[in-house]
Amino acid sequence: WHLAQALPFVNDGKIVKWFGTNTDIDEQKQLQRQKDDFLGIASHELKTPVTSIKAYAQVLGAMLTREGETKKAEMVARMDAQVNRLTNLIGDLLDVTKINSGRLQFNKVWFDFNQAVKETMDDLQHTTKKHKLVADFTETGHIYSDKDRISQVITNLITNAIKYSPHTDQIIISTRLKNNEAIACVQDFGIGIPDNKKDRVFEQFYRVSGDKQHTFPGLGLGLYISSEIIKREGGRMWVNSVEGKGSTFCFALPVEGNEQ
Ligand code: ADP
């Protein structure tokens, strides 16, 4: 729509409706698109060298371990862990550009929801010695969804629970079936979120600011990506939290009919 084509609806000399857009919005949209394009290209270009560094680090680590050079192998393992962090950050940036341009794709299959949650939990338990991931499952059956994307959401919630509970060690992961929805919750006993910030944590780039939070690294993208994934899979995501006591992040996905 251009202004020249736009026709105002006039009633008693007052404009009651106006079809069209104004130039400011066009410019804003164009700027946003340029930002998204840049982010997409930059993260894509970063991915290639990082993948290659990872491959070399793994080969080097294996060589050093074989040669009995445990100290050096340990240093390479730390490099590898940092490369993994970089890979995850780049992955998040790529996902955001995909979400914002409507290109996030889903590869749906039938899978056992509890089993997927358990697998993700077990993988993450290996990454932390301090925190205990406790399962409190009830039978949920199978769901039709993108298993990798759902694992990504659970990973995000559990890594946040670990990150934001530096002084407590228990994290409870529960599942249940209610009103035709498979529900998973991740509960921590960490720093919690102030009441007036709770709704904003799902926004893109939003991070709670304050003394307690400023030491935690992050881009403020994980919850945005997670909630968009769940939304696009027909579900919903929410949080209950008490500042200083802990948070419980949950998501619910529809359990559709009978298994095909
Ligand atoms: P990031 O952790 O990279 O900042 P997220 O999108 O995952 O990004 O989270 C957004 C913000 O929500 C965080 O910066 C933090 O302030 C808050 N937050 C998320 N998870 C928790 C949690 N389990 N406990 C307390 N605060 C949390």
From TrEMBL:
Residues 1-37 form the PAC domain. Residues 41-257 form the Histidine kinase domain. It comes from the Bacteria. This is histidine kinase. It comes from Mucilaginibacter ginsenosidivorax. The lineage of its organism: Bacteria, Pseudomonadati, Bacteroidota, Sphingobacteriia, Sphingobacteriales. The chain holds residues 608 to 867 of 867 of the full protein.
